[in-house]
Every structure is written in C-alpha cells, then in structure tokens.
C-alpha cells in the first residue's frame, strides 16, 4: 500500500503522469494501473484527468492529506530504528525564514556539523508562513521563523531577539526627523505578505503613523538592501542583516524618534511528530548558541 500511496502523492505533486513516471523510474502505463488499483480500493474517483492537467477530487484531497502523513511516518520510523541500531547519523530537514537563514543559520550549521559529522542537514529557505506550513505537513523536521504562528499542531518556541532598523541611501537627507509625513512620502521597499519581516514592518507603520504613498514588494532581504543602496527607496529590516553595509557605509540607518522595535526568532516543530535524537541535538545547539 505504501508504494501505491507514494505513486499517488508523486502524481498529485508533479501534476503530470509523464513527469511522475520519470521521477519514480516507472512507465506512464504502470502509474495509470496503480492509480486504478487505488481507485478500486477506495471505490472513488481520486483524480480529475485532462490532457492539460491533473487535479484532485474531494476523495482525492482526503487521501492526499492522509497519504502524506502515512509516508512521513514510515520515513520517521525508519530513522528512529536506524538511530537505535546504528547510532546518531542521518538527515535533518531544516527550514528557515530568509533573515535567519541567510545571515545566522550558516554559522549555526557549520558548528553543528563539526560536532556531529554524520548528520546531514538539508536546508530550505522560504518565508515564515511557508516554513510553518511545511512543518505542519511534516515536510520539515524543524522550522526557524521570524513571526509567531497560532496552530494547534505546532509548538512555537522563542529563542533569540533581533532589532529592526530603518535603512536609507547614503545621500538621504531629512530636515525634520520628527516629521513622519516626510517618511510617508518616500518609496518603501518591503517584504512580501507571509514574511516575518513584513509583519513587523506593517506593525511599525501602524504604531508610528507612517503611511507610505508608494510601496515596492521584494521577496529577498538581499535585493531590498541593494535597491536601497541604489537609491530606489527606504526600508525596514533586521539590523543583523545589514550590519556589514552599515559598517562599510554603503547605506545608513535612520532613527525613528521614540520608537524601538525588537522582534523574536522562533523554532517550530510539529507536536504530533515523535522527536528524534538528531532533532533534540539540533534544538540543544540552538538553545546553547542563543
């Protein structure tokens, strides 16, 4: 049954029988036969198939959701037994938001691998909401995110803090620092919805009364820094992410009068997923470093 479920999951995610066959190294006709077996077993049509695309029926949605959980449990069981028999080694799937993932995670992973050379981390970098969703779906062992999430299936734990700062081009001049309207007239370059940085940026706008007339949305902190450096606008980002540029003088920070913003980094795990020794050691590394 697990083989049938794996074929079904691959077809759903690839949205194409040919691509699914190539990924699984089996023929398209073999995939079709296995899908028919599944549909006979559940006495339901699982997929809507046309020449252009494949989509899930309602019974198919139910099967896909639970099939993913079943396959993930198989994988986790194998890892737990392997740890018991062979010692601490194997993969660790880590997800992270962009700020932590690009500026802090590399050093953390380097220290972790040095101490545990038989563990093989696999890193995924996305915005915080997408990382939390992947932890929820058991696609990741742990996520490091830049905003708190509310989900009964997830355990979210704060472990570090991060100051936020307004960054401006080096030729930026404000003749009246107390005049928020001056900043409202500037082009603001901000992260996309779902990003932890976007959440604290929106909070800052609400708390200070800044109401930008023009907004550009970029999906990467690195691109935002470069856009500010070239004079396209101003932004509100992690001070950790911009330390090098501030030190070199390629951009500068701008103080918001009577406003200081410190956000938290969180690690998130799935409550329903049994913990592994590898995951426990990585969490210990996070707690020790921060």
TrEMBL record:
GO MF terms here are: DNA-binding transcription factor activity; transcription cis-regulatory region binding
Give residue ranges for domain HTH lysR-type: 1-57
The keyword DNA-binding is assigned to this record:
yes
Listed A to Z, the keywords are: DNA-binding, Transcription, Transcription regulation
SUPFAM superfamilies linked to this entry: Periplasmic binding protein-like II, Winged helix' DNA-binding domain
Annotated InterPro entries = LysR_HTH_N (IPR000847), LysR_subst-bd (IPR005119), WH-like_DNA-bd_sf (IPR036388), WH_DNA-bd_sf (IPR036390)
Which Pfam families does this one have?
HTH_1 (PF00126), LysR_substrate (PF03466)
TM annotation in the entry: none
Is-annotated flag, keyword DNA-binding?
yes
Q: Return the PROSITE patterns for the record.
A: HTH_LYSR (PS50931)
Return the Gene3D superfamilies for the record.
3.40.190.290, Winged helix-like DNA-binding domain superfamily/Winged helix DNA-binding domain (1.10.10.10)
Stated family: Belongs to the LysR transcriptional regulatory family.
List the PANTHER family: HTH-TYPE TRANSCRIPTIONAL REGULATOR, HTH-TYPE TRANSCRIPTIONAL REGULATOR CYSL
**Name of the protein in its database record:** DNA-binding transcriptional LysR family regulator
Origin species, per record, is Rossellomorea aquimaris
């Amino acid at each position: 049954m697990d083989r049938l479920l794996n074929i079904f999951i691959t077809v759903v995610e690839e949205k194409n029988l040919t691509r699914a066959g190539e990924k699984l190294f089996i023929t398209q006709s073999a995939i079709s036969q296995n899908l028919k077996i599944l549909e006979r077993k559940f006495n339901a049509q699982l997929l809507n198939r046309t020449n252009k695309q494949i989509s899930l029926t309602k019974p198919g949605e139910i099967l896909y959701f639970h099939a993913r959980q079943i396959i993930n449990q198989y994988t986790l069981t194998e890892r737990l037994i392997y740890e018991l028999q062979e010692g601490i080694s194997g993969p660790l799937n880590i997800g992270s938001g962009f700020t932590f993932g690009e500026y802090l995670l590399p050093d953390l992973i380097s220290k972790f691998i040095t101490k545990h050379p038989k563990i093989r981390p696999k890193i995924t970098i996305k915005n915080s909401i997408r990382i939390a969703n992947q932890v929820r779906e058991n696609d990741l062992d742990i996520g490091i995110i830049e905003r708190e999430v509310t989900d009964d299936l997830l355990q979210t734990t704060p472990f570090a803090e991060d100051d936020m700062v307004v960054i401006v081009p080096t030729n930026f001049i404000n003749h009246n620092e107390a005049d928020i309207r001056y900043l409202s007239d500037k082009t603001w370059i901000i992260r996309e919805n779902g990003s932890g940085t976007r959440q604290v940026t929106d909070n800052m706008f609400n708390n200070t009364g800044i109401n930008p007339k023009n907004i550009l949305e970029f999906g990467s902190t690195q691109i935002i820094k470069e856009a500010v450096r070239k004079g396209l606008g101003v932004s509100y980002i992690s001070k950790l992410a911009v330390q090098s540029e501030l030190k070199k003088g390629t951009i500068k920070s701008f103080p918001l009068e009577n406003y200081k913003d410190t956000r938290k980094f969180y690690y998130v795990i799935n409550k329903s997923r049994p913990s592994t020794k590898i995951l426990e050691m990585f969490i210990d590394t996070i707690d020790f470093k921060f």
